[in-house]
Amino acid sequence: METKASGKLGASDSYEIEGGETKSKILQNLIALQFSYILYNAVLKNAYNEQEARMLAMDNSSRNVGEMLDHFMLTINKYFFLGTLYVFIFVFDILLFCQAFIVFTASKHTVGDDLYEL
Question: Which residues fall within 8 angstroms of residue 54, CB to CB, at 6 or more apart?
């Protein structure tokens, strides 16, 4: 069988078609099917890229919040440490003052005093 236009046997001409449909009708159906496949593939890629963008945005925001919390906790721990250090220094100063006061009041007593005789 030779085609009318070129005079050569085409790839689709070597097959017999059942059901009474012409080769042009089958090709039109295949073109419509391929177009719907391409359109479905584009919609699927669009949905995939949208979900991937959302996932990356959530991942980046979670990472940023984690870094902010780490920095915040370091700052709080630093000020908490400095605050406790200042409290310890204050208590130590009070103890030194009390010790100096005791030494000062003890030095006012005479040696012959009843409380401080050896």
Answer: none
Q: Are 106 and 116 in contact (CB under 8 A)?
A: yes
- Phi, psi values for residue 60, rounded to 5°: -65, -40
Do residues 8 and 2 lie in contact, with contact meaning Cβ atoms separated by under 8 Å? yes
pLDDT tens for 46-89 read 999 999 999 999 999 999 988 998 898 888 888 888 888 888 88
Q: Which tokens go with 115?
A: 């409380």
DSSP 8-state symbol, 19: T
The structure tokens listed for 108 are 């006012």
Rounded to two decimals, the pTM is 0.46
Amino acid at 90: F
CB-based contact 17:23 (threshold 8 Å)? yes
Q: Are 84 and 94 in contact (CB under 8 A)?
A: no
Alpha helices in the chain (DSSP H): 23-108
